[in-house]
Design a protein that fits this description.
The structure holds 2 protein chains of 2 kinds.
Chain A lengths: L7 E10 L2 E5 L5 H9 L3 E9 L6 E4 L4 E4 L2 E4 L3 H4 L4 E3 L11 E5 H8 L9 E4 L2 E9 L12 E4 L17 E6 L5 H23 L2 E8 L19 H42 L4 H38 L5 H5 L1 H27 L3 H6 L8 H34 L9 E5 L8 H10 L3 E7 L9 E5 L8 E8 L3 H5 L3 E4 L20 E5 H6 L4 H4 L3 E4 L2 E10 L14 E5 L6 E6 L4 H15 L8 E2 H8 L1 H35 L1 H9 L4 H36 L10 H26 L3 H4 L4
Parallel strand pairs in A: 6-11, 8-10, 17-22, 19-21
Antiparallel strand pairs in A: 1-2, 1-12, 1-13, 3-6, 3-12, 4-5, 4-9, 7-10, 8-11, 9-10, 14-23, 14-24, 15-23, 16-17, 16-20, 18-21, 19-22, 20-21
Helix pairs in contact in A: 5-8, 5-10, 5-17, 6-8, 10-17, 10-19, 10-20, 11-15, 17-18, 17-20, 19-20
Chain B lengths: L1 E12 L2 E13 L4 E5 L6 H8 L7 E6 L2 E2 L5 H10 L1 E4 L11 H11 L4 H14 L15 H14 L4 E5 L7 H16 L3 E5 L3 H4 L4 E6 L2 E7 L1
Parallel strand pairs in B: 3-8, 3-9, 6-7, 7-8
Antiparallel strand pairs in B: 1-2, 1-4, 4-5, 9-10
Helix pairs in contact in B: 3-5
Classes of the chains: A alpha+beta, B alpha/beta.
């Protein structure tokens, strides 16, 4: 745990205009300066500029250019706020001069072979020289930050004259011990009034700052989580609940079988009592048996977990943290768990066993009646949980498949994505033409982002022919975008080569052409036909002209509905190349493209990705959830079936005589199976009804999070319930087959 | 109809075999009324078990009609139970969870006898045995003799071709015992083959053939 973590806060910012509010995790560069100088309760404040928001960098450590994405600028106060260890270098004054760089341990190993040889070396980042002044420990996996390079913010031109806008930085404060956070908040509000009051009045917006505790970032609002994705709290709760359910099912098995077996042990109990054992002593004996079992189980499960840790991490995407498990806290927790489970499981059966009347016990004529009703409800519960989990798994999977296969409004197949650096942009047209000429690419477009991940908020202001005001997403691209990813142009025309670029239009009354999507024009109350030629104020541009309307496509995750979008003719803002491959062998085509790239820009790394794979990774967390759910559901079903097997064995044992009689009377294997299973199947039917109820509730809640969802289908329910029933019947059938095989002569002894 | 050839049943222990049945050769024709007699341990019940297909653990040949029992599949044997044999156990072996009515009904259910026919068969039997009032009682609520009657009713309800009875009158007083033997006789007249094992000499008189057993072997086999 980071030292003083409870005193560290991240500052987030809210923008409100025209009734719409937006919360972002970024804030301006003047903020930490002001906090440091004017707030007495602030011990220190630091700024982080995460370059990967914008693009990757080219790092040359002597072996040529390498593309690096974990690069950030931090100011000189970074190590005052965050207590990371410096392996090489002094914390005082580090990163206080321009062109200074701190590497993480593994980066130093990677680039220079070892930590010690990294110190004092220089390397080039995007052509600029930097001196390595320090090496720090790797960011721990429990930290929400993950960088390879930390450069001094003084290098960046944004540090020279800090402003209140733009909000491009992550700012953190460490408050003094005992600071009053309510007072801090009100001081923040006063600061806003003082420095931004007149701007807010003039431009008609409001803004405010909020402090978010460092410790709440990882599990907090995902839109505010910087650097690396956090985890949604709801998943933790879900898995926690499921784990408890699984343990419960296991306990139920124990209770059922132990009480059923009670009748077998009553002779032992009777004898013990006759020899002088008291009820409490017997109770203690039986409870300690179950606690011992429980302890054994914990040992076994820890061992198994250790063995499967690595495959599990690859499979489910979740690393298992053994340090936590083996810490004193963890071990106490495990022991406590063993005790609690053993106690819970053993309590009821021990009560039953120790209360048996000695005479009745020795007489050996105990009915199964004791606790039969309890056992039945427990079985119902077990199978309810199994079926419920299976149904949930199928629902999650269905939604996942839906999201993979839904019509996104554009084609992502056979599209290669190449990141390129701003400095390369002059080479791009030549690159483009060569690739097309090589015959491997049908169409190539420059864009600011991959089409499923477009950020960049702009605003439509009242003016021109429009009187509405709303936020709109802006997508910088070129005239080839539509062709490359097969967007549908509903009305009007696409950009042509002769259209002016946005970057070249300085004039406010520029009549800059723009493309809007259906949602945008609907927001302004126009049909597609009506919209063509209308004038619109977007961002800082007044009187832009609507040149064309495109059909909506999903430019963000399917969690949200499609919002309004404007596509700018602005290839200078782009840093992604989208290449639509010609049909045929993708590997061969890719190789040809690589050749062209290497020929024209040999010092730039070639890191191709496929658009459909990148898209799929958007739903990585859902995939992980789905896999883990399947695993849990499988385990639940298995445990419940084992319990059923035990119970059926026990019942078959008790009814052996009856089964033999029936056999003599002419019953077939099927008749016997029927006799044994009817009771259990009734219980399972109740479980099924309950599971259906649960399943409906779960589906509705889960799918609520998605603006775009599958229709609730009957198949998850049918498949889940039927498969559990069939497995149950097989379990019972197997057991009854064994009893059926017995010789009636051996089973029907004279009484 | 039934033929036993060189039938042996033994228990292996260490270096010796203890024979429960040794060298049984027996032919049973349709329509016979056979009584097996002999002291305790002679092997009467064992032989009856084997005849009734309750015991498959023996050496030698057991043919039913043209078929060898050991070569039959499970399903064929099950069919034999249904169509050919009715078994009366010495220990009654009623199903405790079923009422008297349901106990007698069970073999009929397995023979797919339609509902109305079942009702009338059971009604007749219970009337015959004076058990109508006990229709809905459970075996635990009946005396030994009454349980035996139910067992007998159950065995004959399905009109088996062969009735096997192991000490059928063990717990009955003489009046009831006579009644039962008369039922047997009536069934015999209707064509049922009956094989009973008993200690009681007077029961043997109802039969057509008497087989005496001793120490697992057939001592004497004569018609009466």
């Amino acid at each position: 745990m980071m030292t003083d973590a409870d005193r560290i806060y991240k500052i987030n910012q809210e923008f409100v205009s025209n009734g719409e509010s937006e919360l972002v995790g970024l804030s301006p560069s003047l903020l930490p300066v002001t906090l440091r100088e004017e707030f007495t309760e602030v011990e220190q404040a630091t700024l982080i500029f995460d370059l990967s928001i914008f693009s990757s960098v080219m790092v040359d450590a002597g072996q040529g250019n390498q593309e690096e994405s974990k690069f950030a600028y931090v100011d000189e106060y970074f190590y005052d706020v965050f207590d990371f260890e410096l392996i090489v270098g002094q914390k005082k004054g580090i990163l206080s001069q321009p062109n200074q760089l701190v590497l993480t341990e593994s980066t130093a190993d990677r680039l220079f072979g070892s930590v010690s040889s990294a110190e004092g070396k220089s390397l080039k980042v995007d052509g600029k020289d930097y001196l390595v002044t320090g090496v720090m420990q790797d960011f721990p996996s429990t930290s929400h930050m993950e960088f390879d390079f930390l450069a001094s913010f003084k290098t960046h031109r944004g540090s020279r004259e800090p402003q209140w806008s733009p909000s491009n930085y992550y700012n953190y404060v460490k408050v003094k011990p005992g600071a009053d956070m309510a007072q801090f908040k009100s001081n923040l509000d006063q600061m806003v009034d003082k420095y931004l009051g007149s701007d807010m009045d003039e431009y008609g917006f409001q803004t405010a700052f909020f402090a978010q505790p460092l410790t709440s970032i990882h599990l907090g609002d995902p839109t505010l989580t910087p650097f690396k994705p956090g985890t949604e709290v709801k998943y933790l709760y879900i898995f926690g609940v499921v784990a408890i359910l699984l343990i419960t099912i296991g306990i139920i098995n124990y209770v059922n079988l132990a009480t059923a077996e009670a009748t077998e042990r009553n002779k032992e109990v009777g004898l013990r009592k006759v020899m002088g054992a008291g009820r409490m002593q017997l109770f203690g004996q039986f409870v300690s048996e179950s606690i011992l079992l429980s302890c054994g189980a914990i040992l076994l499960s820890t061992f198994i977990l250790y063995l499967i840790a690595i495959p599990f991490e690859n499979f489910g995407g979740v690393p298992l943290n053994f340090e936590l498990l083996f810490s004193p806290v963890g071990m106490t927790g495990l022991l406590g768990l063993a005790l609690i489970v053993g106690l819970l499981a053993g309590f009821y059966p021990s009560m039953i066993l120790s209360q048996m009347q000695p005479l009745k016990a020795l007489g050996n004529k105990m009915k199964i009646g004791s606790g039969a009703w309890v056992r039945k409800s427990l079985v119902v519960f077990q199978f309810f949980v199994s079926m419920g989990l299976l149904i949930s798994t199928f629902v999650v999977k269905n939604q996942l498949n839906f999201m993979q296969e839904v019509n996104l409004g554009y084609d992502k197949e056979q599209v290669v994505v190449l990141n390129y650096h701003y400095n390369m942009r002059e080479a791009i047209p030549t690159l483009r033409d060569e690739m097309v000429r090589s015959g491997t690419a049908i169409s190539i477009s420059r864009a600011a982002a991959m089409p499923h991940d477009v950020k960049g908020t702009y605003k439509i202001f009242p003016g021109g022919d429009n009187d509405r005001e709303f936020f709109i997403t802006g997508y910088a691209a070129d005239p080839d975008l539509i062709r490359t990813i097969n967007l549908e142009l509903l009305e009007g025309q696409n950009y042509s080569e002769s259209d002016p670029l946005r970057s070249s239009l300085k004039d406010e009354n520029s009549r800059m052409p723009i493309l809007l999507n259906e949602s945008a024009i609907a927001e302004m109350g126009w049909t597609a036909k009506e919209a063509i030629g209308k004038r619109v104020n977007v961002g800082f541009t007044s009187n832009a002209l609507v040149k064309g309307v495109i059909k909506d496509f999903y430019f963000n995750s399917l969690h949200k509905k499609v919002g309004p979008m404007v596509i700018f003719n602005d290839p200078d803002e782009a840093n992604v190349l989208l290449i639509k491959l010609r049909a045929g062998n993708p590997t061969a085509n890719l190789a040809t493209i690589e050749t062209v790239w290497k020929k024209l820009v040999p010092d730039r790394p070639f890191n191709p990705k496929f658009l459909d794979q990148e898209y799929a990774s958007l739903y990585q967390s859902e995939q992980n959830v789905s896999l883990i759910f399947s695993l849990f559901a499988g385990i639940a079903v298995f445990i419940a079936l084992m319990g059923l097997f035990g119970l059926v064995s026990y019942v078959a044992l008790r009814r052996t005589r009856e089964i033999s009689i029936r056999k003599v009377l002419g019953a077939t294997q099927g008749d016997v199976l029927q006799v044994l299973s009817v009771d259990f199947l009734k219980l399972l039917a109740i479980s099924a009804l309950l599971a259906i109820g649960f399943g409906i509730w779960f589906s509705n809640s889960w799918l609520e999070a998605f603006a775009n969802r599958t229709v609730l289908s009957i198949w998850p329910f049918v498949i889940a319930i039927l498969s559990v029933m069939v497995l149950a019947v097989f379990t019972i059938g197997y057991r009854s087959w064994k009893v059926f095989r017995l010789n009636p002569a051996t089973t029907l002894k004279s009484e | 109809m039934i033929q036993l050839k060189n039938l042996d049943k033994f228990i292996e222990s260490r270096f010796q075999r203890v024979f429960i049945l040794k060298g049984i050769n027996l032919t049973i024709n349709e329509g016979e009324f056979i009584t097996l007699m002999g002291p305790s341990g002679a092997g009467k019940s064992t032989l009856l078990n084997i005849l009734g297909l309750l015991d498959e653990d023996y050496e030698g040949d057991y043919s039913f009609g043209e078929r060898g029992i050991k070569t039959m599949k499970e399903r064929e044997r099950s069919a034999l139970y249904k169509s050919e044999f009715g078994y009366i156990f010495q220990a009654y072996h009623l199903i405790d969870e079923l009422t008297v009515y349901e106990n007698i009904e069970t073999p009929l259910l397995y023979r797919n006898v339609p509902s109305s026919e079942r009702k009338s068969i059971i009604a007749n039997l219970m009337d015959r045995f004076n058990m109508v009032a006990k229709k809905d009682l459970f075996p635990a609520q009946l005396s030994g003799g009454q349980q035996q009657l139910v067992g007998i009713a159950r065995a004959v309800a399905g009109r088996p071709r062969i009735l096997l009875a192991d000490e059928p009158t063990g717990n009955l007083h003489s009046g009831q015992a006579k009644e039962i033997m008369e039922i047997f006789q009536e069934l015999h007249r209707e064509g049922t083959t009956i094989i009973q094992a008993t200690h009681a000499r007077e029961n043997a008189d109802f039969g057509t053939r008497l087989i005496n057993m001793l120490d697992g072997k057939i001592e004497r086999d004569e018609a009466i």
